[in-house]
Design goal:
The chain has 212 residues and is of the alpha+beta class. The chain contains 8 helices and 5 strands, in the order H-H-H-H-H-H-E-E-E-E-E-H-H.
Length: 212
């Protein structure tokens, strides 16, 4: 998997987790979407205080499932190749996607959480499937080092089963979901147009992360 894809996933997940994992349960879609984003990182910061690495990993998995639209995001990132996969392969991809993100970045995410900080909400507006929340992050450390004093971050929230789920993050105008799709298309192109190369690469990367 390319270094750019690794960086894109890391950036997306750091923002998502440190900015939106405060609720003890998924926020109802009837609540203020800005409040959903403004309630910054408290739950992940609590996870960072756990002494058991296994407990930390299990909790991050749970947070990911509760707050991400995992199925929707996975289908979008895979794009047209989703239809080529069998139902069992589709489920495998979603499982690999989640495991890859959590296994690869859990330690670093917790380090960011311990540092505090988060987005300052500047507004919101309704969207076709939920809402978009606008925010700014001002921080010269962590994943923002060298990116300038202020980063504009827009959060796309979709409604799933009456709750908000995060379906994309747009950083300085760049959609992390769209960038992830572009990177996976590159995996297919470099492997003779074989869509199943995505699964092969994801299996390899997940196995490598598990062994660390």
């Amino acid at each position: 998997m390319s270094a750019l894809l690794r960086h894109s996933l890391l950036t997306m997940v750091v923002i998502l987790i440190t900015g939106a994992f405060a609720p003890a349960c998924p926020a109802a879609a009837g609540t203020d979407p800005a409040a959903f984003i403004s309630n910054l990182g408290k739950r992940l910061q609590a996870v960072s205080n756990y002494t058991s690495p296994e407990q930390k990993l299990a909790e991050i998995h749970e947070l990911f499932r509760e707050n991400f639209d995992v199925a929707g995001l996975g289908r979008f990132v895979v794009g047209r190749f989703w239809r080529i996969f069998t139902p069992s392969e589709q489920q495998e991809f979603l499982r690999l996607f989640e495991n890859f993100v959590v296994l690869t970045y859990s330690k670093r995410l917790l380090e960011y959480a311990e540092g505090g900080g988060g987005p300052r909400v500047t507004g919101s507006r309704p969207d076709l499937d939920g809402a978009i929340v606008f925010s700014e992050i001002t921080n010269g450390s962590g994943p923002w080092a060298g990116r300038g004093p202020t980063i504009k971050v827009d959060w796309r929230l979709s409604t799933r089963d009456g709750n908000y789920k995060i379906s994309d993050v747009i950083i300085d105008g760049l959609s992390m979901a769209a960038n992830g799709r572009y990177q996976l298309e590159g995996v297919v192109e470099r492997n003779g147009g074989q869509a199943h190369a995505i699964l092969v690469v994801m299996r390899q990367e997940t196995a490598s992360a598990s062994a660390r």
